[in-house]
Every structure is written in C-alpha cells, then in structure tokens.
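Our preliminary data section would be incomplete without showing what the modeling component actually yields. Below, a chain of 403 amino acids is followed by its predicted structure, encoded as tokens that our downstream tools consume directly.
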Amino acid sequence: MKRMSILQTHSCHSSYNRLKYVFNEPVHSYQKTDKRVLAATGFNIKMLNDNDGRISVTQNGAYLERQFRTVLKRAHNPKRRYQAQTIIISFDPSEFDTSDLKAQSQQALQLVQHYVRKHFADCQSAIAIQSDGEGGKLHAHVVMNTIRPSGKTVATNRFNIQKLRKDFDEEMQTNYQKVTGRQWTNPIHNQSNRQDIHNLTTKSEWQQQLKELINQIKVKVTNITDFLHQLEQRGVTVTERQKGKSWTYHQVVNTKDGVKELKVRDFYQRVDKQTGEIKSTRGLGQSFSKSEIEHYFNKKKEKENQNYDRRENNGLEKVKTMAADAKVRIQRQRRINQIAQQRLEKATHDEERKAAKQKARLSNQEQRQTRGTKRVSRQATKSKREGRSKQPRRSKEIEGPER
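Predicted structure:
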C-alpha cells in the first residue's frame, strides 16, 4: 500500500521541552536503530559539530533553547503563550524503506532542508531525522521558533496543514528523484485498495474506529506528546483550531466513494447566545476534546507523582529503619569493643602484676642465695682463722717450757 508523506503541526508552550524531546529523549524503539537522531541541521542557529566539522547528530536541547530564547526576547511580548511550532513529516515505506538508514536519513534530511529553506528560511529552526518510532518509519521533526530573528512573529497561517502538505508534495515531486534516483508519483492519486485493520467504508464507521484507537493509545502512553506521536504512527494527524483550544482529527482512508481524507472535530456545540440553549452537538465527543485529553494526562501524571512520592516515602522510611538498625548495631559493636578492651586491659594488668610478683620472687631468692653464700663464706673464713690461731699453741705445749 502506498501513501503520501504525512505532515502534522503543533504549537508548543515550551521550546525547551520540545527541543529536549527531539534531541535528548532516550530511543523510543530499537527496532531499526539505537540512535535517537540519525541526521540533523538547522537554520539561523548554531549547532554542535563533530571533529570532522559536520553537524553532529548529538545535540544539546538546552544549548539550542538558549538561542531560541535570545531571539524570543526580541519580540514585543517575550512571555508569549507559544514559544515554538513543530512540523512532523513521516515518510511512507514506499518512499524510504529504511534498508539503508545511513544513506536514506541523509536523503530525507536533504529534502526536508530544501523544503524548510524554501518556505521558512526567515525563521529559526532545528531539524532532526529519526527512525526510532514504533513502526520504525523514517520521519523528520522541524522545531521552529515562533519569533523570527528580526523580532517579528511567524504568522500562524503559514502552518496551515493543507498548505504544508501541498507544498511538501511539490517538494517531493520536484526533488525526490534528484535526491534518491527513484521516481516519485503522487500516491494520493495512485493508491491501491487499503488492506489495513479497519477497512473503513463510511464516515460513521471511521469515527467509531477512531474513538477505539484513541482510547487504546491513551492507556498505553503517559503524556500528550507521545499520544499524538502514536496517532501519527497510525496515520491519524491532529490539527488545532479556535486558537489552539480545540482539535480536528484527520486520516486518509478508503471509502465507498474512493480514497478520501476524512476529518472530524473533537467536540463542538452550537449554543444560542441569548438563551444558552444547545442547538447541536458535533464531533467525536467531549471525552475526545483537547481539554479533556489534557486533563486525563494531567491526572495520570498526578497519580504517577503520588505513587512516586509514596514509593519515595516508603523508601525513606526503609532507609530510616535501616539507619536506626545500623545505629543500634554500631552501638552494640561499640559496647562489645569497650568490653573487649576492658578485658584486654585487665588481662594485661594481671600479666604485668604476675610478672612483677615473679620478678620479686626471683629477686628475693637471689638475695637469700647471696646472703647464704656470704654467711657460708664468713663461716669458712672464721674457721680458717681460728685454725691458724690454735696451731702455734699446740706446738709450744709439745716443746715444753724454756729453761
């Protein structure tokens, strides 16, 4: 099945969030590539370069946003509600089959770059080519500042979806073959019978299937950006009306009357201004309106934050309990160490006292031995002296008295 390139456009309150989403989000799907951005460029903006001087596929959203903010300050109202406008171009597999992402991403970038230069060269913009969506299709994000470098506002009618599609079809008709070497024909006039899962035949059936699709996607994603991206991946584009307050859903389908682009408002009521009476209600329904879907995701985010806070609190309580347990263990170990130290000091003291007693005992023994030796020596000396004094007297007694 062939389809034309799909374009959609969105107004963004924060250029920082959009640039960060395009360049710094984790890869959404690894089906085709492990890179978030395959090729990048920009107009009226400085981008980071690789060592070889080429524009890097790795860009810093905050760095780009600072340049957007510098231009935004030149506006009459720098605190305007919408800071950026995005254009998303999704190529059909018949245009780029992603068999050679390196070459085809550069070809897609060349086509989108030429298109932006032709129609938005006076604006500040950043362009990224990606293929990490759920279906792995090659697509382009163009993030554009709502203020031109001159300080003038970019007119919102320049982002009319029908005009954008017409202009990009002309771009493909003129340059696709020059860039890729393959011929491009307007698929909207050469579509074979659709074999998609819906097989839509009437507008009412299409609206019913669209409601089911929206409800399915709402459950799967967590924010409105991913919600719109998932719709776009399934061929449904969303445009804004009533100065961004409401939506209109679009899809090219095969009806009984041939291939047509069907569209339906999200929710609309015609009210009598005098009486307040509701005269008619149109669209998919109030639950499919922009305000209700935004409210749905805000509540979802609030619930996730509450769950996160609860987990954080549980984790904090767990940490506190672990800290208290650790403190008790430290105090117990400290007491054990104190007791062990006291025992060691007592044992050391006992050993020292025992050694001192032993030393004193040995010293006493030595002293007694010394005294005994001295006494024996004195007795021997005395005996010897006494022996010498008695011997002469015995000699005189033998000789007798002199005459």
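The radius of gyration is 48 Å. Confidence is low (pLDDT under 50) at residues 189-200. Preliminary results of this kind motivate Aim 1 of the renewal.
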